[in-house]
Each structure stands twice: as structure tokens, then as C-alpha cells.
Design brief:
Elements lengths: L4 H32 L2 H42 L12 H4 L1 H40 L13 H26 L7 H25 L5 H30 L15 H7 L1 H16 L7 H24 L2 E4 L3 E7 L2 E2 L7 E2 L2 E4 L6 E7 L4 E4 L28 E4 L5 H8 L11 E14 L10 H7 L12 H19 L3 H7 L4 H16 L3 E13 L3 H5 L1 H27 L6 H25 L4 H24 L2 H29 L1 H6 L1 H16 L30 H9 L4
Antiparallel strand pairs: 1-5, 2-3, 2-4, 2-6, 7-9, 8-9, 9-10
């Protein structure tokens, strides 16, 4: 084929037509998606709009190729005319071939720039789509994917545009087989991408007629995934183009020219490549043999026959011995022979996709951890062992009643009603709980539990969750019963007294709750591999019995000392309370007497009445003490005896003083001197005493002290006469 400006002009026109077709398809889909509220149509339109950059790039490059050919043609004509003399063409070709220079600059900068722009647009739009789909998939947001109710119109529009784009891609692939039009491969790849997106939307919409929305969800996710894949391929093409060797005279392939999409535009080349690969593996031309040719000629009929056989087989469903099955039509359960649930055996249904079969293994034992479980799966635990949980998991404690150990100390320290002190009445324990269950095959009335099991929840797994919605519901119901039951048990019962009975009690309570709500589950067991005091208290909890024993020992010693002391003081310990009450009444009466004296005087009737009451209560208290016969009685008797002795002595001294009054009145001076002498005898008994009858101012005493006193002096007579002084 002749390579001239007319060939590039034709390619420019084809690229312009492709640009118009691309913008028409994208705009129609966008308008339909906005008016009908269909998100998949909008996503497809966004992808198609990115292809406009590729078509613009081809229009620009083909137009520049046309200008370069016209420039070369003019240069050739001037050279062929034989014009001589000074002219601009006597200079170098690089200086005068501006169109060729611009063409090289476009391949060097414009085409990679357009490729980067396509990558940027694809990345941004894909990120927006992923973000929207992720928000819709989050169950807490309660958002739904916008889907049109005009399903027929969407199928017609999408299928029509897909056929047009596929035919046009085949046309472009045929033109791109010529070297002059090789850049049209990028347009063929863009059209194939349009076909993939449109067919994904059409297929998903077709399945919506059967109320199967999962396919349209896959189609919605497929569009951003395809955009990311194309963007990654373009980036790889850009990198490889930097190191790919170039042949002189050949123009580089644009990075936005997707190899994968271009291959789908020429399926015959793909089949030819497979044939070459088969021949290479066998070592001879097997594709020319009669068997291979027969297989190719009969391949279509064999494919149809295989499809018929598969459709026929899809009408027969087999239910295993441990299974139960459901016949579904557009997601709804189809009942036949008066039963919606199929037991083991086989049954007939309409072919796929009109009807499908759902099988459930009702005999399989399922495990559901109610609490985070230890990753090591140890058979036994000690309280001080560390529980290794999965990242992000946290072991929440359960509330139980407080322990009997140390309960009196808590009451004494906090008080029974200390502002509703929660910590004084309850304790916390850590538990690992694993529930084992299976789907209820038949209840007591013969009804299948599979339908109740399916109605209770779905098998959907929410984002950032490991459990299905149904499993979360079962876990929450079981945990509510566990929490209520544990709140009625004390810490001692949970850890020791009723440890072995907890699993059975919980299994009964949870099963009753499941039956009440018609969950459709048979509870097999509640396994509790570990119960311990919560947190770090488990390590110190073993010290509590020792402390309680020490406390009990101290209390017992104090009680023994109290009884010993009361026995020694009171005698009979049974009357201690009455004696203490009598003493308290006596103290109150004494205080009443003091108050009456201070207010009314000691001689007032009120004081006298208080004094009589005090004496009465003192007598009563003493009588109680005397009945016991303890040391208090002896102390009281000794005090009374000493009091009477002191009274008698004082009375005798008073009588003696009265008898000396007459002697004083008869001779006061003599009585005074005699009393002085008696004082000397009593107080200075071990010293010598001298009597001098001379006035002191007239006397000069020079004494030589010698023991010459004769016995029977006056002092001895006085001493003997007076006798001992009390």
C-alpha cells in the first residue's frame, strides 16, 4: 500500500469517527445512569470518557503524519524540478522539515504525556469507585447500590452499543494490520474495553430479572478493577519503551496501546498463536491433520451438545445423606410435594439459571467462639498463664457476685450502703467460651429447622468482620444468657463450688432461648476451658485464702482473750451483756446527777432524785457482778473493806483530837511545847535533842558532843507515853 498523506488522512477520519462514537456512547450511558439512577451505567460512562484521550492522541498523531508526508512530497517535487541556485532547500533537512521534527517531538513527549494523563484519570476514577463501593458494602452505613428499574432499556442500549463497538474494533484491528495504520490498534483496544464494560453491565442486568443481584455487584467492582489493570499495563509500557530497542524508520508504539485489549480485538490471531504453540509442542504441523481439522469443523456442534448436556444435568439435584436441600427460583424457595426442604435423595428442577439448588450440611458440628479464644489452643490453663489473643481482640470480663472470703472486711471498710458501691457487691471473671452446635434437622413436631436457621440471618460477612450476620446473632444471644446467668452466681460458686455445673446450666438456658426465638439450632455443648479472676487479680487471688486464714486466727485469738478476760473479771460470760448495759446505765445516771447539781444545786430535789437513781443502779450493777463471781467482785469487796478501815482510822483520830482539847485549854503553852517534843520524836527520831533554858542572846555555846546520856531520859518517857503515831 502506498504510504502518502491520503492514507494518513483516512486514518485521521477513522480516528475522528471513533472519537465521536466514544463520546456518543459515553454520554448516552451517563445520561441514562443519572436519569434512571443506575450506578453501573455511570461507572461505565466514566471509563468510556477516559478513552477520549486515546482518540485525541490518535487524531493528533495521524494529522501530524499527514503534514509530514505533505512536507516530504513538496520537498520531493522541488528536488525533482531541477531548480538550481540558492534556495532554502540547499540547507540541511533537519532545518527545513519542521513537520517531521514536530512528529518526532510528539512521539517523544506528547504520546507519553497522553499515556500518563490516561493513567492519572483511570487511577482517580478507580479510587472514587472503590471508595463508593466500599461505603455501600459497609452494613453500618445502610447504603444501597443505585440500580435502575428500566432493566430492559439498559440491556438494549448496552447490548446495541457493545455490538457496534465490537464491529468497529474488528474493523480497526484489520486496518492496524498495515504498518501505516498501526496506531489504530490503540483504538481497537479502547473499543474492546468498551465491549467488556458494556457486556458486564448487560449480563448483570439480565441476572437481575431472576432477582440475582450478586452478578451486578461483580460487574460494578469489575469496572474499577479493569481500570486499575489498564493503568498498570500503561505504566509498564512506559517503562519498557525506555529500554526497548528501536529500528530505524519505525515509529514507537504508544504506551496507552494496551496489548491485552488489542489481542482480544483480533481473536483470529489469538487462535493462530495457539495453533503455532501446539505445532511447536508436537514438533510437526498437527493443525493440518484431518483429526484436528475435524475437531475444528465439529467444535461448534460439540460445544452446543456439551451445553445441552450440562443444562440437562443441571435439572437433576442430588442431596447427600447428611444434607438438606432447597429448590430456588430467582432467590425464592420453591415447594413441591408439600415440602420446601428436601431430605437426602434426588429431585428434579428447572435448568440453570432458571432454578438453582442450595445444599446445607445439617449434620456438621459447627464451632462458634463466644469470647476471643487463645491462639495456642492449650488443653488446660493456670490462672497466671498468659492468654494469647489475635491482634485487635480483647477479653471482656463477666460480672459475678462477690466472694464470701473477706466479705465482712468489705462491709466494715465500705459499709453496706456506701453510696451504692458497685465494687463492694460484685466481682469480675475472665472466661473462654466455645459453643458447638448444628443445624436443627427436625424439631419435636417434625418441622424442618433449616428454614428457621436461614430466616434467622444471612451468610453475609460484614467489612472487617470474621463472622457472618447469622453467627453474630447467635453469639449475641448466647452472650446475653451467659451474662445474666453469671450475674446470679458468686465468685466462689464460679471458681470452685459450681464450676462443673456451669456448662450444663448455660447449655440449657441458651437452648431454651434459641427455641423461643426459633433459631433452628441444636446446641451440642458449651465448652469453658478457662475461668479465672479478671486481669492481674488472678495472680494475687491465691493470697486471699491465706490472708483470710490469718485473719480468722487473729479473730480466734482475740475471742479467746476476750473470753478469758471476761471470765476472770466477770466469771460467767453469759451475763457480760447485762453487766455492760448496767454499767452504761450507771454512767448515764452519774452524768445526770452532775447535770442536776450544776443546774439546780446539790441540795435540790432534782439532784436528790438523781442521786437516789445513781445509787440504785450502782447496786444493780454490783449485784450482777456478784452473781458472776469474777475478780471484779473481789476488787469491789477489797475496796469496801479498805474504805471501812480508813473511815474507822479517821474516826479514831478525830476522837483523839477531841480528847486533847481540854488539855490545851488548861495549859496552852505546855501543850504547845509537848506537841513540839512529840513532833521531834516522830520526825527526828534518830537525832540527839538538847533543851537549853537560857535566852539565846545571852548564851555562848561551846559543845563537845559525847554519848554520856543516861537512860530513862525525858524523851524516852515521852516516846513511851505517846506510843506510835498513825
Amino acid at each position: 500500500m502506498r504510504i502518502d498523506h491520503l492514507a494518513y488522512q483516512r486514518a485521521t477520519n477513522i480516528a475522528g469517527f471513533g472519537f465521536l462514537l466514544q463520546i456518543v456512547v459515553a454520554t448516552v450511558l451517563l445520561i441514562f445512569g443519572l436519569r434512571a439512577g443506575d450506578a453501573t451505567a455511570e461507572y461505565a460512562a466514566w471509563y468510556l470518557y477516559v478513552g477520549l484521550v486515546v482518540w485525541l492522541g490518535m487524531i493528533v498523531i495521524f494529522n501530524q503524519h499527514k503534514l509530514e508526508r505533505l512536507e516530504a512530497l513538496e520537498e520531493g517535487e522541488l528536488t525533482a524540478s531541477g531548480t538550481t541556485g540558492e534556495s532554502i532547500f540547499d540547507r540541511s533537512g533537519e532545518e527545513i522539515r519542521t513537520a517531521a521534527r514536530r512528529l518526532r517531538l510528539m512521539y517523544k513527549w506528547v504520546m507519553p504525556g497522553a499515556s500518563l494523563l490516561v493513567v492519572l484519570l483511570l487511577g482517580i476514577l478507580a479510587w472514587i469507585m472503590f471508595d463508593q463501593l466500599s461505603e455501600i458494602a459497609e452494613p453500618t452505613n445502610r447504603l444501597e447500590l443505585g440500580l435502575t428499574q428500566s432493566k430492559g432499556w439498559l440491556i438494549a442500549v448496552g447490548l446495541g452499543f457493545a455490538v457496534i463497538c465490537f464491529i468497529f474494533s474488528r474493523y480497526l484491528a484489520g486496518m492496524a494490520a498495515l504498518g501505516v495504520w498501526q496506531n489504530l490498534r490503540a483504538g481497537a483496544g479502547v473499543m474492546v474495553g468498551n465491549v467488556i464494560v458494556l457486556m458486564a453491565v448487560v449480563i448483570g442486568t439480565i441476572f437481575r430479572f431472576f432477582e440475582i443481584d450478586s452478578v451486578i455487584w461483580v460487574a460494578a467492582w469489575l469496572i474499577p478493577v479493569l481500570m486499575v489493570a489498564v493503568a498498570i499495563e500503561i505504566v509498564l509500557n512506559l517503562i519498557l519503551n525506555m529500554y526497548r530497542p528501536r529500528v530505524s524508520g519505525d515509529w514507537p508504539r504508544a504506551a496507552y496501546d494496551s496489548r491485552g485489549l488489542s489481542l482480544l480485538a483480533t481473536p483470529d490471531n489469538f487462535v493462530r498463536s495457539i495453533n503455532d504453540a501446539v505445532n511447536y509442542q508436537f514438533g510437526f504441523d498437527i493443525t493440518s491433520s484431518w483429526g484436528y481439522q475435524l475437531l475444528l469443523r465439529s467444535g461448534a456442534w460439540l460445544t452446543v451438545l456439551g451445553l445441552i448436556v450440562l443444562i440437562g444435568l443441571s435439572t437433576l439435584s442430588v442431596v447427600g445423606g447428611r444434607e438438606q436441600g432447597l429448590r430456588l427460583r430467582s432467590g425464592a424457595i420453591v415447594a413441591s410435594d408439600g415440602s420446601s426442604v428436601r431430605d437426602s435423595g434426588f429431585f428434579w428442577k428447572l435448568p440453570w439459571p432458571l432454578e438453582t439448588t442450595a445444599l446445607f450440611d445439617v449434620g456438621r458440628v459447627r464451632e462458634l467462639p463466644l469470647t476471643p479464644m487463645d491462639r495456642t489452643r492449650r488443653p488446660g490453663f493456670l490462672w497466671e498463664d498468659e492468654i494469647k489473643l489475635a491482634p485487635g481482640e480483647k477479653l471482656e470480663p463477666f460480672i459475678v457476685g462477690r466472694s464470701r472470703l473477706g466479705g465482712e472486711l468489705i462491709d466494715q471498710s465500705t459499709g453496706a450502703d456506701a453510696d451504692g458501691d458497685f465494687g463492694g457487691e460484685y466481682a469480675l471473671v475472665d472466661m473462654l467460651i466455645l459453643m458447638e452446635y448444628r443445624i436443627q434437622s427436625r424439631d419435636s413436631e417434625g418441622n424442618s429447622g433449616l428454614l428457621r436457621y436461614l430466616r434467622f440471618g444471612t451468610d453475609r460477612v460484614a467489612r472487617r468482620q470474621n463472622l457472618t450476620v447469622r453467627e453474630q446473632g447467635l453469639r449475641d444471644l448466647a452472650l446475653s444468657e451467659v451474662t445474666r446467668y453469671m450475674a446470679t452466681r458468686s465468685l466462689d460458686e464460679v471458681l470452685s463450688d459450681e464450676r462443673a455445673e456451669i456448662s450444663g446450666s448455660l447449655q440449657t438456658l441458651i437452648q431454651n432461648r434459641f427455641d423461643e426465638l426459633e433459631v433452628g439450632v441444636d446446641l451440642l455443648s458449651i465448652n469453658i476451658p478457662m475461668i479465672r479472676p479478671s486481669g492481674d487479680a488472678a495472680k494475687d487471688f491465691q493470697d486471699l485464702p491465706l490472708a483470710v486464714q490469718q485473719r480468722d486466727q487473729l479473730v480466734a485469738n482475740a475471742e479467746r482473750n476476750r473470753i478469758t478476760l471476761y471470765t476472770a473479771i466477770v466469771g460467767d460470760t453469759d451475763g457480760v451483756g447485762d453487766i455492760v448495759d448496767a454499767i452504761d446505765l450507771t454512767n448515764d445516771s452519774r452524768q445526770s446527777l452532775d447535770a442536776a447539781i450544776s443546774e439546780h444545786g446539790s441540795g435540790s430535789p432534782e439532784a436528790e432524785a438523781a442521786r437516789q437513781l445513781l445509787l440504785k443502779r450502782i447496786v444493780q450493777a454490783e449485784q450482777l457482778l456478784q452473781q458472776g463471781g469474777g475478780s471484779a467482785v473481789s476488787l469491789i469487796q477489797s475496796a469496801e473493806r479498805d474504805r471501812w478501815i480508813e473511815i474507822m482510822e479517821k474516826r479514831a483520830q478525830a476522837d483523839r483530837v477531841k480528847s486533847q482539847v481540854a488539855a490545851y485549854q488548861a495549859a496552852p503553852q505546855l501543850y504547845r511545847q509537848r506537841s513540839i517534843m512529840q513532833t521531834y520524836v516522830r520526825k527526828l527520831q534518830g537525832l540527839r535533842k538538847y533543851i537549853v533554858g537560857i535566852a539565846p542572846e545571852r548564851m555562848n555555846v561551846n559543845v563537845e558532843l559525847r554519848d554520856l546520856a543516861s537512860p530513862n531520859t525525858i524523851f524516852e518517857g515521852i516516846s513511851n507515853e505517846e506510843g506510835p503515831t498513825p
